[in-house]
Amino acid sequence: MKSVELFAGAGGLALGVSLAGFNHDAVIEWDKWACDTIRENQQRQNPLVTDWPLHERDVRLFDFSTINSVDLVAGGPPCQPFSLGGKHKAHSDKRDMFPATIDIIRRLRPKAFLVENVKGLTRDAFANYLQYTILQLSYPELVRSSKESWIEHLARLEKEKTSGGIRGCAYDVVCRVVNAADYGIPQRRERVLIVGFRHDLGVRWSFPETTHSLDGLLYAQWISGEYWERHKVTRKSRNNILDSKHKARIEKLRGVKVAFLDKPWLTVRDALQGLSDPQDKNATALHSNHFFQPGARVYAGHTGSPLDLPAKTLKAGDHGVPGGENMLVMPTGQVRYFTVRESARLQAFPDTYVFHGSWTETMRQLGNAVPVTLARIMAGSIAEKLLEAEAKRLTAKMKRAA
């Protein structure tokens, strides 16, 4: 199956899509540093990216006429217009790349698409724009005219939706906020995922069921004790992470059979297992990108991640408030920055994948990335439905021929 990757960044989403069985016809990213990361891994003959056709350019300037019969278009348009840390301009922000994404889908007519963005896109202030985006993705051929405002275009799309008819290329679209921790990623990272299947395929799809939970983790830590035993953590060394809400949940879990629970959320301790102390002089020699960065300190509302919970959402920054989230809170209460390698593990990148650039650049790449495992799970579910649809098409063709 063939795919096109837009706004690839350092390659998190693209890696997951590849691992799900898709072959990239184009991997497009305009940022030099992110492209350098992919190129460095290609130079190192990393089999995950060796054959990627990487293009360092703006997606709006790419010649898509050379690409035919695409199964999947995937990408995460820049999130700054919708992020909590941005200027919240949405459609008025020149960095809004949803129009470009929709235009590319209109031109390529892929069988499916997977679009990722920040949870901030679901805020009340953007409610109409999110609905507008979903409707444009549903009917990409109903292009906004030069005389229409986006609100007028929204009204026209709404009429198309309620008409019940399907004209031209249309998509069945679903949208959901997902938490990466619920799918086995050691990070509480909530993101909006928008998935669409071309209507003529007749695909019925829903988001994959979650596999991990906080209840599972609390059970393993405070009822069965399996978590502490597995990590060989003594009672005196355990983090005091319990608040009143956790205690109440634990009481409700007593007597529950573990078979009825999801797997435990993965924690920072789980993710960092096997990595040496970054202040050890041999740390970088043993693991690439694993070097100590001094200067970590707590900011109001940005206090770092406890060792025995999933990490808080990694932010696209190093020092200052973003850096205040990109920290580990050690059992002693001291804080330090996550190393680049530790951050990569929290984003489910393999240890063989190296990151190119300064501390600032690599942390920006990681803070903007899609967790590789989450991308693989979502793209794998999409691939399964596309294969089922193709099998049905071939069966119907054979019946007609007979």
Strand order of the largest sheet: 3-2-1-4-5-7-6
Q: At the first level of CATH, what is the class of the largest domain?
A: Alpha Beta
Helix- and strand-based class? alpha/beta
Q: Compute the separation of the termini in Å.
A: 28 Å
Shape, principal axes of CA atoms: globular
Q: How many separate structural domains?
A: 2
As a percent range, the share of helical residues equals 25-40%
What is the assigned CATH homologous superfamily of the largest domain? Vaccinia Virus protein VP39
Largest pleated sheet:
7 strands, mixed
| H/E series | EHEHEEHEHHEEEHHHEHHEHEEHHH
- The CATH architecture of the largest domain comes to 3-Layer(aba) Sandwich
Number of strands: 12
Sum up the structure in keywords.
402 residues, alpha/beta, Rossmann fold, 2 domains, 7-stranded mixed sheet, 3-stranded mixed sheet, 14 helices, globular
Structure, described:
By secondary structure, the protein is α/β, with parallel strands linked by helices. It folds into 2 domains: about 1-210 and about 370-400, Vaccinia Virus protein VP39 (Rossmann fold); about 210-260, no CATH class. The chain has helices at about 10-20, 30-45, 100-110, 125-140, 150-165, 215-220, 225-230, 245-255, 270, 285, 320-325, 340-345, 360-370, 370-400; strands spanning about 1-5, 25-30, 55, 70-75, 110-120, 170-180, 190-200, 210-215, 265, 305, 325-330, 335. It has a 7-stranded mixed beta sheet, sandwiched between helices. Helix 4 packs across helix 5. It is globular and about 70 Å long. The two termini are about 30 Å apart. Mean pLDDT is about 90; it is low at about 80-90.
